[in-house]
Amino acid sequence: MQSKAHYHKTTTLQQAICAARDGSADLVIKNAQFLDVFTGQFRAGDVAVQAGNIVGTVEEYTGKQVVDGQGLFVVPGFIDAHVHIESSLMTPARFQQAVLPCGTTAVIWDPHEIANVQGVEGIRWALDASEGLELDVFVMVPSCVPSTTPALELESSGAELKAQDILEFRHHPRVLGLAEMMNFPGLLHGDEDVMNKLVSYGGMQRDGHCPGLLGRELNAYGVAGIHSCHESTSLKEAQEKLSKGIHVLIREGSCAKNAADLLPLLNAYTSSVLCLCSDDRNPADIVAQGHINCILNLALAAGHRPEEVFRIASFAPAQICGLHDRGVIAPGYQADLCLLELNQQGNWQAGFHIHQVIKAGKIITAEALETVAQHRTCQQTGRCNMNMAPVQPAQLHIAAHEQQVKVQVIEVIPNQIITQKKKAILTTQDGNVQPDLEQDIIKIGVFERHHGTGRSSIGFVHGFGLKAGAVATSVNHDSHNIIVVGANDAAILQAMQRLQELDGGIVVCDDKGTFTELALDVGGLMSHRHPDDIAQAIHQLKQHAKRLGCNLHEPFLQLSFLALPVIPALKITDQGLVDVERFCLTSVLC
Amino acid sequence: MQSKAHYHKTTTLQQAICAARDGSADLVIKNAQFLDVFTGQFRAGDVAVQAGNIVGTVEEYTGKQVVDGQGLFVVPGFIDAHVHIESSLMTPARFQQAVLPCGTTAVIWDPHEIANVQGVEGIRWALDASEGLELDVFVMVPSCVPSTTPALELESSGAELKAQDILEFRHHPRVLGLAEMMNFPGLLHGDEDVMNKLVSYGGMQRDGHCPGLLGRELNAYGVAGIHSCHESTSLKEAQEKLSKGIHVLIREGSCAKNAADLLPLLNAYTSSVLCLCSDDRNPADIVAQGHINCILNLALAAGHRPEEVFRIASFAPAQICGLHDRGVIAPGYQADLCLLELNQQGNWQAGFHIHQVIKAGKIITAEALETVAQHRTCQQTGRCNMNMAPVQPAQLHIAAHEQQVKVQVIEVIPNQIITQKKKAILTTQDGNVQPDLEQDIIKIGVFERHHGTGRSSIGFVHGFGLKAGAVATSVNHDSHNIIVVGANDAAILQAMQRLQELDGGIVVCDDKGTFTELALDVGGLMSHRHPDDIAQAIHQLKQHAKRLGCNLHEPFLQLSFLALPVIPALKITDQGLVDVERFCLTSVLC
What we know:
2 copies of one chain form a homodimer. Helices cover 26% and strands 28% of the residues of chain A. Chain A contains 18 helices and 30 strands. At the A-B interface, helix 1, strand 5, helix 7, helix 8 and helix 9 of A face helix 1, strand 5, helix 6, helix 7 and helix 8 of B.
């Protein structure tokens, strides 16, 4: 693994050795206590930094720049072991602006969403857009694009990636391996393309995703060389995975929150085999609550020892992912450092806040991150995000001859991405089945946006509570076609039209033609805007949806998962309504 | 890192997944308890193996072959994190025959001795001779050949390896990095060739060797990316190294025995950052006492918990060295397994013995190892080991005009490789200074054997106790020229002649021309003979030396270090007597 901690020039190495030996460095933190993750002690003494790396600890150093760490604790920078940056709605440069000040100095990104939209081109963009940032972004190559076997024709993704398509990324210096293998049914049945992907990424990290898999099936999953999983939701499940040599990534995302359930796994012995990850975390949560630092505070509040808690955020993921140049505060390791202040002096259980972050020896400032982000704004994917003709009113019709019909309805469950199947009676008008606001049954539509096929489907959904207007978004897992819900056809058409004008994003409109919107100009998934602006836009969008009657806490996130045909029970894609339990298309009319 | 645990064919992977899922494998261990190194628990249940890898744990499996593990414990195969195989006097195939039955399933070899004799050709031979064995032999490329800077002209090694000479080995699939950087003075002073070696092996493991280095100098050493050391001799030294991010390898060799002093480092937290190693272990010790298993028994006897003890012999070195395919008993890891029987049921403190070893899924048998070793006997280095003319009597003379002279004498200290400087008065005869058996002062000579230069030097040594005969050997750290001690010139000449006829090895002869000998036909360092035969030969050589008056416990090992000019205080090389404290040549006559 090529990394910044290695000196590529003998002269730089000579200078660093000289600095370490003679006691004079670029930057020195004095008077703090720093965590030694090898023995689990907080130690007093200087931490000296030169040319991006730590050159001295404990002994006294003079520095061109001196940071007074009186009363502070220094811990290694945090590593997010599995994240979809796209879920933050931010480009990598904006994401770093949001998470670096939270102490996250490296992330392992599965650019699964942009890969679903743009295929290998999306992965190339992800690598380019994350190159040379302050934040170290390592990439896992998406293994399951699209989420379902294309032969099933359950959805139309922007791209389909076979084993040979992803070969080119193996040797990229920041690619660590193959991303979450969600297709565990395919794996267990020896699907040839799945096998080819696993074999061609042999000798590299191959990440897992196997919710609920246990017993011999879990054994079989491990046999494929997959030794990590971030999908455990119960302690028992996580314990079995851990005991089967599968590193458990404790996830605390915006929807999936597993820290409380899984933290009891942590002790001195396991502090080298566990990691933390955010997976999917929305912009509002990152801006308001933070990133990996949130999980650390949860763990400390639960009474876990800081030397164990901070180890699973740094040294453990570094070791597990083969990033041997980081995660330790000692000479010759990358100077990725968080200076922490306790919320209550001497009491870790009351938590900490970030005082300062040093990344590769540089003190992180808001100004510098903003400059980088602005500079990167011009870095587009070079593609139009919407390859589709304007939606016609007829596309929204559900035809029926009877006056009353029985229909299948997707029932949204608040704060969950699974749905339930519901049946309802609706009336028809001029041969078209009508929504019923009284029953909270409104239309939901998915429109193919990648290949200009004009394919679309319409169904009904219960649980949004919209009494007027419509909500549309191009963020729609995993295929990211357009998904829209609306109280009436006119509002849906308006929202769709505006979303097309924006070239992707999130739109809320009312019946009078008033819009709230967030353009997501990169792939219809990410924005170049400032994290605070994005969080603010989401807030305004939510408020607007609320005014229209929407009673969901996370309307856009919930909407974004209604087209994912691998999560039970009833979903809708551009191909039609999907009965996930039977893994086949089904009709709206019963 | 390419490794055996990865399936290179989709069909093999499919079969393994199928076996794991369906419960039918090649080999199943039943009724044992196996160690789960992720959580530190011994667990009940089957361990199923297929095509070299573990395919199932806990769940029930049927096996073509079933091993009844009733009353046994299964732990991951042991890893020797730093060894010079040459010190066993065995070729790799013979070494595996000695250590695999002791539970060692992988070693990390620094072929430093053969590299000093034969240079890059020696390293190539080391890679060839260790290819395709049952034992996994990973190689670290020697960083310090010869041991001293050639410009000092303190000794003549067989080869000199500059940074560009060792570049070719970087990409070998079993090369993990750069071996022990003994030249820490050179490193601390930014020596260019040392820098070039460190930089060109950047991103790979770079092993350390820094006895007694502390404080800012230790910081500087770590800055060079060196994060391991096996030379700590005190707990305090090891604690400082560990706290500075340097993995401590606890060594228990034949001479250097550090386990008792360093084992107090071990606890649940540090069990992921410590390793074990043998460094230099002689054939008699391996045959009589074992290998890494000995250190494990010492640790258990000291009261350490088995889950911590076995972790530092398996999972920890595997992680640290990036061998992510092993060290864990779980599906998808290599099936390197030791079946242990407790010496006293239920009491780890009383130790264990090895019941059976399974390497990459195969039950290790003595017959199979003997077959491999015999097959490999023909694998020579293809070189003559001795490039030198017969020694002439005049080469043994030390001329002086006075009747009595004061001389500098090397004083051997039993069981240590350091020496003391001694002064003595000797008499001359026909202009030649004579040894004095009464004072136990005899002649010691070193003869260049690599380049046919005819260079030799003669001095005096105290402490061998020889009253007759001579001892000569081609094992002579690190340059491995011939070293000889003898009670008289005639015996020395006889021993030298016989050693030349053998093309290297160890020879003891008496004054009547009776020889005891062990030929070391590979580089004058290693033998193709059975480990038991080598141990027996050493025993006979020692007995013969004892009959000649030698009172040292390890006469050949001690002799082998008298030419190493980096260990204090007075040494002798082919260039002459070396004052190590002043790092220069000195004369025999005061």
